[in-house]
Design goal:
187 residues, mainly alpha, Tetracycline Repressor, domain 2, 11 helices
Amino acid sequence: MFARRGYAQACVKEVAAEAGVAKPTVYNHLNDKATLFRQSVQAAAQVVLDERLAALEPLKEPDDLHATLEDVGHRLLQLHTDDRSCALRRLLYAEITHFPDLIDIVVESGPHRLTQALADRLARLALAGRLRANDPDQAAEQLIALLTGPLEARSRMGTRQIDDAELHQLARAAIGTFLAIFGTADG
């Protein structure tokens, strides 16, 4: 409801109806609309993070590093451009001045945690001699930037759907650039 109508236009009665509960039930569990909003954003951000962390799983023991990185990059792009993620970003952009603490909520369950998990995978690959990543945190940040950097312009800030073929092309280009910098001859 918040994503569709925005914080100001959404009312607790509508949120309760969509959740299938009575309005007093919402107020019994969450004191006010602002708390409901924060909890909703936190829950949505956690779901988005869990999906992204699951997308990194193939990097634990990849046979073909290049192909695995492309598949993981493609999956991350799919998740970044899905309806839930786009709605969450739009809502965050729209409400951040009214709820500055949303940054802390999203950072706790968002990009920072994904970057940390990706850095861990890249560090393990570097230790195995499959990547040249002296600073896995920086390598992870750069990989995510290579993947997501073009999306805002190409999607016209989330208002244009990007088809899967274009997402594949973006993943290939990002991984090609990443491996040109961080790849090894035998990795």
